[in-house]
């Protein structure tokens, strides 16, 4: 047996040193292991191609066409418009461009307030939940209920609560507390922005709470104990330990909340219907109205492409700044 093993080893060594020897074939099992991840990813890549990439390419093509209701049946025959749709969208002196700019500014203000409040409420609740007390598990579950509810069911419920005559909000504010002289309108007029912001924060802050609470689990408790022994108070611990430790988590969280909120279409559409009030005219619902209400899909597609470019620029700049800040902190 020893002689056979020695001969086999010698044959392998000679074959390896012989340049004319035939190359050794890989084992089928190894090839199977290498190709398995790509095989598992193939359905997801196929769905990504069909659901996102193909419609996006078609939308870009449509943005260069004069596609109106007269060419819906065969949109390929629509006349080529070139950059006319883009020029019309960015002409802020014209009614279409002026309305788009106003909607863009409203969306920016709404996004800043919504993301800021979602992060603030989520961080406060997550830090509070780090302490052990009776009923903590029940509170954690209750905090996640808005995030677990379907969007349409939650927003429709809020729409009923914001009704002027028989809604719960006016019943509490006007009938019970007497804070208003008369029941205000929440789904029309200037108050529609406040109603939209309340619904957005209500359904968005549990996600921030969940992510920050998970990030807090990675901070050793020994650091807090050492800081307490050195005389650091609660606010000093949050400022010096919690927030710096959560910086990578917060960077990703803020970016995700920004993209979700800026592109939010379901909330204003379900809350206000097809025609959102002027004070709550988010750019997503504005593009929908420009496309499906006026049947001018070329201009609506151009607005969508401009929105995509804006989000790509903001996301790239944000990632660049955060990566530089991370490198500076590590150095």
Which helices and strands appear, and what pairs or packs with what?
Blueprint: H1 2-17, H2 28-62, H3 84-90, H4 95-128, H5 136-143, H6 145-148, H7 151-161, H8 168-176, H9 191-216, H10 221-229, H11 234-245, H12 247-262, H13 266-272, H14 283-292, H15 297-330
Helix pairs in contact: 3-15, 4-9, 4-12, 7-13, 9-12, 12-15, 14-15
Compute the CA-based radius of gyration. 29 Å
> Helix count, per DSSP?
15
Helix content: over 70%
Task: Briefly note the structural class of the backbone.
Answer: mainly alpha
Order of helices and strands: HHHHHHHHHHHHHHH
Q: Main beta sheet, described? A: none
Give a quick rundown of the structure.
The chain has 331 residues and is mainly α.
